[in-house]
Design brief:
The chain is built from eleven helices and five strands; from the N terminus they run αααααβαβααβαβααβ. The protein is α/β, with parallel strands linked by helices. The protein is elongated, with a radius of gyration of 23 Å. The protein has a five-stranded parallel beta sheet with strand order 2-3-4-1-5. Strand 3 (about 165), helix 9 and strand 4 (about 195-200) form a beta-alpha-beta unit.
Length: about 240
């Protein structure tokens, strides 16, 4: 048997992790005490894990997060009304399986975006397609998509995501076009997939923020009552990082 030919065939079939392991076993004389079944299982497991890692990396990259957020870096020590038990339960993603939503509110710098992205990264690690948008930029993108005829394509992309994150919601005025887009997205995802909204604006003020009573009622009815809440408090965490 031509072992080097076997390695090359594996690579051509894009079994790169398997090929690398097999090549190492030949050149470094590894796994000689393994049975054929055990060695085959090892190669398959190695290829599987490698592909899973690549899938996760691709999901995180395509999500469009603005920062590398890790649950290991969440600050539970600073007094900001963040319950560790509650947040770790949300990291378990049961709310996503139940097609529920999450609203994170709090003053600027309290860590809303970071927490939302921590959950988004965890969703990607569990192989859930996730999309992150700054809300104002999303509205601008949707308006351009309507003009160039790609709006259905944009909505279809969002439909395919198990988790949608809308960050900095309400920081710019919501006009009629933005209201319609928001209603389209929320109505389409209601009882089908989850949304995380991070905002400085308390939920009690959303009705006036959205405007036009009928649309505001429809949006709030579909998002607020099916949402878990994290209501952060306190001073900006960025003050801890300021230069002396």
């Amino acid at each position: 048997m031509n072992e080097h030919s076997t390695v090359e065939k594996m690579r051509r079939m894009r079994l790169n992790a398997m090929a690398s392991l097999y090549h190492r076993s030949l050149t470094e004389h590894l796994y000689q005490d393994y049975s054929l079944d055990d060695f085959l299982a090892l190669m398959v497991d190695t290829e599987w894990e490698n592909r899973q890692c690549r899938n996760i990396e691709n999901l995180i990259q395509r999500a469009g997060f603005k920062q590398a957020a890790s649950a290991a870096d969440v600050d539970y020590q600073t007094s900001r009304n963040l319950d560790k038990t509650v947040f770790e339960r949300l990291l378990g993603l049961t709310f996503m399986h139940n097609k529920e939503n999450l609203i994170i509110t709090g003053p600027t710098g309290s860590g809303k975006s970071f927490l939302a992205q921590c959950i988004g990264v965890k969703a990607c690690q569990m192989l859930n397609k996730t999309i992150y948008y700054n809300t104002a930029r999303f509205f601008d993108l949707a308006k351009l998509a309507r003009l160039d005829g790609t709006y259905p394509k944009l909505i279809k992309r969002i439909q395919k995501a198990q988790l949608l994150i809308l960050d900095d919601f309400g920081l710019v005025p919501i006009d009629q076009a933005a209201r319609n887009v928001l209603l389209d997205v929320i109505e389409d995802r209601y009882d089908k997939a989850s949304i995380i909204i991070a905002t400085q604006i308390p939920v009690a003020k959303w009705h006036g923020l959205i405007g036009e009573n009928t649309i505001a009622d429809a949006i709030l009815d579909r998002i607020v009552f099916s949402s878990h809440r994290i209501e952060l408090e306190g001073e900006s965490l960025r003050k801890k990082k300021k230069l002396n």
